[in-house]
Amino acid sequence: MNKEDKLKYYGWSVGDRYDGWRVRKVDALFSVVPFILPKRTDSEVFFAVKIPIDSIENFVREHKKEMPGLSIMDVVIASLIRLISQRPYLNRFIVWNKIFARNHVSFSIAIKRSMTIDGEETVIKPYYLPTDSLQDVVRKTNQELQNNQQVGQENSSDAISKFMGYLPDFLLRSVIFSIKQLDRIGLMPKLFFEASPFHTSVFLTNLGSIGIESIYHHLYEFGTCSAFASMGKKSSKKVVNNDGTIKTMKTIELKFVLDERICDGFYYASAIRLLEKILANPSALLLPPETVIIDDGVGKKRIET
Questions:
Q1: pTM of the predicted structure, to 2 decimals
Q2: What does 232-301 look like in DSSP terms, one character per residue?
Q3: What are the structural domains of the chain?
Q4: N or C: which end of the chain has fewer CB within 10 A?
């Protein structure tokens, strides 16, 4: 994590983690649900939304010169970051039956180093701020891609996975067990946290880049990720205008698998509607948000960016 991408936060108290604050101000039901549904795989909910992309494609073409490498995926990432800035409960996570508010924003993004069947695959984890504009998102994402896209390169996640892959089974089981237990109490070494793609705000895969439709991907028990997002390929559909004429509209489908324990269904539905509005007006992403809403479940703690 770059120093500039860390949130400066104040008001630490017992029970907080280095990657999040304990959420104490919460409805009684939500304090009990993590004990009834202790696993993320017990608590998955699914959303799908088709996003019209004609205006997004026009926007990308207009701004690609000033933002080299700008893509629809960048617009989607920037939109999700803007969404988190306005719906902070989406950046919560649950560990050991307790709800926490993540004190940073990060995305784990699966990439292929070479577009072949047996090509190397890895995961990058850029960090962002809730105040980031689209330009910031493109710069940070592209920097991570450039640092990790060459065949044969190793990032920290690759290196740790490779090392652990050499361990004999009995020792690997002990190491993984110990890491999980330390993570439960918030004492997992930061080396593993920085390398882990499973400790992140959103895990994102762009399946449209390899020409297939989006999927519902399960959440992981290990880590703190409460949202998995999948982008699909471009497709076309017929729509009827108000005057009765028919036109063809290009779309992509976004599919989300979410942890229902971090907020209620109404909050999720409100977030999806807001995401559609943000994506319908990508030019607003060129400026930082007017305000950043802080999770009200963390009491008197405050964030400075």
A1: 0.90
A2: ---EEEEEE-TTS-EEEEEEEEEEEEEETTSS-HHHHHHHHHHHHHHHH-GGGGGS--S--PPPGGGTT-
A3: 3-107+129-139+200-288 (3.30.559.10)
A4: N
